[in-house]
């Protein structure tokens, strides 16, 4: 399992949606959320963007203009919104309507402040929990089974992939959880990140979901990668566009390690802006969630693993909201646990049985290891002399260090630093290799005494 990054197996623009695009909503009934929720969003947007016109509000809220106009009319009747007419010379022009601007009245500002205190979310109108659940189930990756060619392409930049392909393919298609285990540096996290390259479809992710009286922010700039550059937010065409409350993205790839806490697995408020944030598994729906460094989280492993028993068994998850309410969402994702600890020592046997696939990662064979050195050194513009490679193999044998795929990148990086500092030719000889090796490994790792 190497760490050479080549061109992506499939261009992201070729990732076709697995389902038909969500249709643009044309009535309040189709939104399936209370009208007051949308009114509060309009008030908050006008507080943030004073004197906006209908087109600007439609762009910000992601719904069609006639719905905005109807809601603005109601807000005017309640004396919450004021109107700023276009100038006299343009009042009869065809574009005059778009130049009518709206702002909050004094009472409207008070209402907006109240709305912000309850919920600081500002963005597109949320989709209903019912519609969200239906979309997630429709985009289940198991509905579009991958082939050997898909997995081989996804792992084309992974040395030792020939052993992993026949194991990972069935595992991904099963939808069951994976346990990736083995020595540190064997490529577990790297391969987990590459799994998504085999899932050759894209998915629609909502900006937010309305559930149990609350707006939950789902779209994450950190975890979701939009691929539809044509889906701009300026013009809504019922024929050529889809519902702008959704974003067409690559399948999510969420990875979290030792920093994981139980709070991250529940809907929670941000301490700074009071926005309800979706938990990691909701953000990862229709994609993959990797729990890296299992056994190094602050909570006991049993506590963490027990959190997943029901979701993995029944494909749905119960989420407790900060206000005490509870909602149910689909749990439709590939879950992978990765650890360099002995699984038998950190997980209960009953839980291990629930994991459909347990995949051990091992050191590379010598030929793959040397090929990895060759490719990486070429990429760095370095020449590794034959004598250096002989010394390298001797060091592995002397110190009983496996051919781990992380080593070429790390040791070559140190070698390059030495060469640049010494201002010598870009060649790695036995001396430089030895210096880099000694700087990379601690004395006790090499069996030497430590003061």
Summarize the structure in words.
The structure is a single chain. This protein has 451 residues and is α/β, with parallel strands linked by helices. It folds into 3 domains: 12-17 and 130-361, P-loop containing nucleotide triphosphate hydrolases (Rossmann fold, 3-Layer(aba) Sandwich); 34-123, Orthogonal Bundle (Arc Repressor Mutant, subunit A); 366-446, Helicase, Ruva Protein, domain 3, CATH 1.10.8. The chain contains 19 helices and 20 strands. The chain has helices spanning 28-31, 35-48, 54-61, 65-77, 96-99, 106-118, 129-138, 148-154, 161-174, 188-194, 280-283, 301-306, 309-314, 343-346, 349-354, 366-379, 386-399, 406-422, 430-440, and strands spanning 16-17, 52-53, 81-84, 101-104, 127-128, 178-182, 201-206, 208-211, 214-217, 246-249, 253-256, 268-269, 276-277, 288-291, 316-320, 326-330, 334-339, 357-361, 383-384, 427-428. The strands form 6 sheets. Strands 5-8-9-13-12 form a 5-stranded mixed β-sheet. It has a 5-stranded parallel β-sheet with strand order 11-14-17-6-18. The longest helix is centred in the last third of the chain and has 17 residues, at 406-422. The chain is elongated, with a radius of gyration of 27 Å. It starts with 15 loop residues before the first strand and ends in an 11-residue tail after the last helix. 37% of the residues are buried. Mean pLDDT is 87; it is low at 1-10, 89-94 and 235-239. Residues 174-366 form the AAA+ ATPase domain. It comes from Vibrio breoganii. This is AAA family ATPase.
């Amino acid at each position: 399992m190497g760490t050479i990054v080549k061109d992506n197996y499939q261009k992201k623009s070729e990732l076709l949606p697995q389902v038909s695009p969500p249709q643009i909503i044309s009535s309040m009934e189709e939104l399936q959320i209370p009208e007051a929720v949308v009114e509060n969003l309009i008030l908050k947007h006008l507080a943030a963007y004073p004197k906006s016109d209908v087109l600007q509000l439609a762009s910000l809220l992601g719904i069609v203009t006639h719905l905005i106009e109807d809601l603005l009319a109601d807000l005017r009747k309640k004396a919450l919104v004021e109107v700023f007419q276009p100038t006299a010379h343009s009042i009869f022009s065809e574009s005059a309507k778009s130049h009518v601007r709206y702002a909050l009245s004094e009472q409207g500002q008070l209402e907006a402040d109240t709305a912000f205190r309850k919920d600081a979310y500002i963005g597109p109108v949320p989709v209903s929990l019912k519609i969200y659940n239906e979309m997630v189930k429709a985009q289940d990756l198991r509905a579009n089974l991958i082939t050997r060619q898909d997995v081989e392409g996804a792992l084309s930049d992974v040395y030792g992939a020939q052993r992993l392909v026949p194991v990972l393919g069935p595992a991904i298609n099963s939808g069951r959880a994976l346990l990736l285990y083995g020595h540190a540096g064997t490529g577990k996290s790297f391969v987990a990140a590459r799994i998504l390259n085999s899932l050759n479809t894209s998915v629609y992710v909502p900006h937010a979901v309305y559930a149990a009286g609350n707006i939950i922010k789902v779209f994450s700039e950190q975890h979701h990668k939009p691929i539809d550059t044509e889906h701009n937010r300026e013009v809504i065409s019922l024929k050529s566009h889809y519902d702008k409350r959704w974003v067409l993205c690559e399948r999510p790839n969420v990875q979290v390690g030792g920093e994981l806490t139980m709070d991250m697995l529940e809907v929670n408020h941000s301490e700074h802006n009071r926005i309800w944030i979706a938990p990691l598994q909701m953000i990862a729906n229709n994609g993959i969630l990797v729990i890296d460094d299992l056994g190094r989280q602050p909570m006991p492993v049993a506590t963490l693993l027990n959190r997943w028993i029901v979701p993995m068994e029944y494909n749905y998850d119960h989420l407790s909201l900060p206000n005490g309410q509870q909602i149910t969402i689909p749990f439709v994702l590939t879950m992978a646990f990765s650890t360099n600890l002995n699984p038998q020592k950190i997980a209960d046997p009953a839980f291990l049985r629930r994991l459909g696939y347990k995949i051990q990662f091992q050191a590379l064979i010598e030929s793959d290891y040397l090929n990895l050195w060759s490719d990486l050194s070429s990429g760095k513009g370095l020449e590794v002399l034959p004598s250096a490679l002989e010394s390298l193999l001797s060091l592995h044998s002397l110190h009983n260090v496996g051919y781990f795929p992380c080593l070429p990148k790390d040791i070559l990086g140190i070698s390059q630093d030495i060469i640049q500092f010494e201002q010598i030719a870009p060649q790695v000889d036995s001396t430089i290799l030895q210096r880099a090796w000694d700087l990379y490994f601690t004395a006790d790792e090499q069996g030497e005494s430590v003061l």
